[in-house]
Design a protein that fits this description.
By secondary structure, the chain is α+β, with helices and mostly antiparallel strands. 29% of the residues lie in helices and 36% in strands. The chain folds into two domains: 60 residues; 41 residues.
Amino acid sequence: MKTGKVTSIVGDGTYKDLNKWKVNIDNGDSLTFFSKQEFKKEVGDTINYDITNEKYKIGKLAQDRPAFVSKDDLILRQVAFKGAIEIVCRTESFKLENIENLTDNFFNILKK
């Protein structure tokens, strides 16, 4: 996997039912990417990508994979989420927008 900042994106027609994009990267790579819709990144974005065909300079955006989460952490997060929901439902001063922050805070407390 390689990383670089996008310096330009130019539509380059279609191939089969996919859009082609010529993308230049600040590290000197100039690659063709294929997508069903618009290219997912913009000029200035840092991307992680793989070169899938060196001869034709075909690139593929690397999938952002979440870090491994243990079963124990999943259970703790569910308990924290339940606690956050109960507080929001019982207290007028807390809003629904606070659930994510409350969940994170409870999770950190439980994790100690």
